[in-house]
Amino acid sequence: MTDKVNGTVKKHNMISVGDKIGVGVSGGADSVSLLHFLVKNKEILGFESITAVHVNHSIRGEEADRDMLFTENLCESLGVPCKTVVIDVPKECEKTGESTELCARRMRYEVFDSFGFDKFATAHNLNDRMETFFFNLSRGASAAGLLSIPYVRGIYIRPLLDVTRDEIENYITENGLTYITDSTNTSDDYTRNKIRHNLIPQMFELNPSFQKAFLKCENSLQMQNAYIKDEAEKLLNRCRNGETYNTGKLKNSNEALRLVAISEMLKEQGTKNIIREHIELVNHIILHGGSASVCGNTVICERGILYFGKAEEIPEFSIDVNISDTFVKTPCGSFKIISFAKKDLQNFNKQAFNNLIDCDRIIGQLKTRSRNSGDRIRLKNRKITKTLKGLFNEKKIPVSKRSQIAISADDEGIVWLEGFGVCERCAVTPETKRAIKFERMGAKSEK
Known about the structure:
By secondary structure, the chain is an alpha+beta fold. It contains 17 helices and 22 strands. The chain is elongated, with a radius of gyration of 31 Å.
């Protein structure tokens, strides 16, 4: 087993010199052999330190406490620091409606993530790969999902992934190690155990060389998936426009490629535990428009643009502004009010004039306010009056960003619209004696 594990670690660049490594240790044969292997080969592998992490899921009462004590004693005998964490999986399942298996896995990895190790080793082996393949198959996984357990995923490494359970048991015997057995492993109440106890043995009955056949199948899937993923990333790069995506190019792409691209898109947005339903929902939005919530993200498609985010809720407001003021604070941002005399205007370029307001042409009370339904403005040098909605659509401004755009108005209507400019009615002329300009705090001044 030692040579095989060292080969796996080297082939997949799992460990770097100086790494601080965490190891998930349940007390079972797999994790005990992994911990012992890493301790024994520390100098060869070159990592700096190793720390065991044991998670008590609060599922098996006294037996779980026994496992925790066993792990602590094992770590003490090996001279390895041990961190034990107790979580309440049954209580969490009541809140979320998750199955015990999925909830326990999610919470366990949340614990692992919290420690900040450079690498974190888990004791998944070749048998686990086969079981996970069929577990995912039973849930309708894609080709990528059938690849079961990756050798490396972020900080997570699986040094035992090429090792069979029989080889692990031989390693345990050869090194005189002891381990404990989780009583739930013998019960068929859990899907994975049913696969382990019933389906896998039947596969070996059908084909005594099933292990080789499985590896051949998985290697083929890995090559195909790597190619499709590479093409999907190229597609995303062609569609990406800043933080948004052009749905026209996505619509016209091959469906299989588009679905993989959507999966990668969701990963970019930090979506975790992506399932087929999430991908199909985003695919529907791309094809037909609309919006939906996917794992806490709001996905919106409008006018051929797909983007993620929630519209920031800004309350209605109206704040009076005097032209002698130097500053105004609004719910959508803070702005400097810069005043210019006639002589100052000679230094402005033509583009800058688009944002200057002639003070003598303001009617009634000047104010900054939130957007009203039906708001319109005829911008300087434009022949027609347009609604704000029309202007926003024209510039393809996402709905989630529109409430953050500043508006200045007087008794007659909108005077200035951030990002668009001043209205024709209040634009400066050669006769202008005094003008003002709103400038968002932190923005680069244009003069």
